[in-house]
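Tutorial handout. Part one gives the primary structure; part two gives the three-dimensional structure as tokens.
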Amino acid sequence: MLRVLPPVSRRSSNFRKPGGMASTTRLLVIGAHAADFVWRSAGAIALTTREGGTALAVALSYGERGESAELWAAPEQQVENVKRIRHQEATKAAEILQVGFSCLDLGDYPLEVGSNALAQLADMVRDFEPNVVITHGEKDPFNPDHPVAHQAAIRAEQLAVGAGRAAAFKTIPQPQVLLFEPHYPDSSAFVPEVYLDITPVQDVKERAMAALESQRYMPDYQSMRSRQRAWQARRISGDGAISNVEVFQRFTPQVIHTL
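Part two.
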């Protein structure tokens, strides 16, 4: 079942980039589970909406079976009740981040994306027309659903883009595609190539993470990783004011006009 919280309009934001211009960023985040967009990219989302851009988070499942540890501690817990709570938590986090939220409710552990779900996801990509897409990496030896989500997200994006020219279906311009940092980057062939300074919105990310009470063990870990990556970013950039960072790996190459 698809449940949607509409994306926040750029026109409704009070934030603007320097010079009074609203951001043109349209950020689409595709995660395997309902909370992935918060743990792994809430800073990127908050920066986007803070600057007047538009963001949409799509979860392929609620993570009701394998990603809801706190809820399964309750006696006689039921899957549908866990889904309901996870939807409430993700919606609350989305409202804090000012991002639209949709869940395809495909089930988790194992997550399986059939042809109909893939077509639905490709249509969502076409309809939203993102210029930035963030999703999981191809490899994760400790999570069975993340590589499945990667394959689905990349294929949906490729179907939406087509061959980059006119086709028998609606196509969109090629977006920039980035990959989340996994829990075990060294075991997942993850190479951090983009260090995003989320210091100005770290408080927003912390509030969004706190909304996800079914995974209370996660905020401390994510904040620790954010501080560690910030140390690296300060060393790389020389900017001593950076205190929190999210990192991503590029999937699409970067085209530049000068070094």
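Part three, for discussion. The first strand starts at residue 3 and ends at 5. The radius of gyration is 18 Å.
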